[in-house]
Amino acid sequence: KRGEEATKLFMDMKGMIDVSPESYVSLLSSFPEYSLPEEVGLGKGREVHGHVITTGLVGFMVGIGNGLVNMYAKCGSIDDARRVFCFMTEKDSVSWNSMITGLDQNGCFVEALERYQSMRRHEILPGSFTLISSLSSCASLKWGKVGQQIHGESLKLGLDPNVSVSNALITLYSETGYLNEGCKIFSSMPEHDQVSWNSMIGALANSEGSGPEAVTCFLNALRVGQKLNRITFASVLSAVSSLSFGELGKQIHALALKYSIADEATIENALIACYGKCEEMEDCEKIFSRMSERRDDVTWNSMISGYIHNELLPKA
Asked: Which regions does the record annotate with the repeat PPR (predicted)?
């Protein structure tokens, strides 16, 4: 809301007073907060960009260029972000981070890693956000070896991996076949946040034969008082499904009720899949009947799979 108000105020002011470069930077930084549809935010952003061009500062003031790159990337116009970035006569670490992050968030994973390599050739040290985005691109591409190289380089440079970087490493290693490395990262972390626990539980739940470890990790999260969410519960229910341990599924279901998330479609679908694998079709049917308008393709497929798994073919 503040971003919309700032833009309106700016449009009212332009032509009446000289707008300082700092005002442009502040205004552009508000665009990611827009609740407007993406195309509307982009239109407003281009309008501001037009006024920036008249000042002649876009290519010469790094803060304005960074703001434009970030704004266009957040609004989904990566081509515009790329053009502004290439036009900038001066770039700092924020410039590179904005471009690399924007490319990763817009699905341009290979180019994000190419920009990372280019940044390093310019002898600019990567910050936490740059590392996170680069590791995210590696995970999306399943390029585990490249991710390992980036990880190794960051250690050689003496960059301190914070919680968010460590979380990105867990995701990278778990999604590229290096689960043991992900477990080592998790174990070495001095502190964990919700993303850390979700990443580790999800990685173990998705790894064949690691269901017991996923459940243990979930119980450890409970033991230390970590706040859990739908992602945590969906992951551990997937692990319980692989173990066909119905009683444990019911205990986790009770916990989901305690957390007031048992009526969310994601959890209900996970419960149906879990109970189906655990030969508890009555519980599946109870949840299915309660879902009503919340049913989606996953719901129906889980019910059908449950009936087939339990050899109730007429019901399937």
From this structure: 92-126
- Say if CB 166 and CB 189 are below 8 A apart: yes
Tell me the CA distances in angstroms from 12 to 16, 19, 34, one per residue in order.
8, 11, 19
Instruction: Look at residue 61 in the predicted model and tell me its pLDDT.
Output: 81
Domain tally, the chain: 3
Q: Three-class SS of residue 291?
A: helix
CATH of residue 199's domain is 1.25.40.10
**197 and 171 fall within a common domain:** no
Where are any strands of DSSP class E within the chain?
Answer: none
What's the whole-model pTM score?
0.84
Enclosing domain of residue 132 = 92-191
Torsion angle of C-alpha atoms 185, 188, 189, 194, degrees rounded to 10? 60
Which one-letter DSSP state was computed for residue 296?
A: -
Give me the average pLDDT of each 10-residue run along the chain (316 residues).
52 53 68 53 75 68 88 90 92 95 97 97 93 97 97 87 93 96 96 97 95 97 95 96 92 95 94 95 95 93 95 84
Q: Which amino acid is at 196?
A: S
For residue 14, report the phi and psi dihedrals to the nearest 5 degrees: -60, 140
Contacts of 205 (CB under 8 A, 6+ apart): 211, 214, 235, 236, 238, 239, 242
The domain boundary, picked from 64, 90, 116, lies at 90
CA 197 and chain centroid, separation: 14
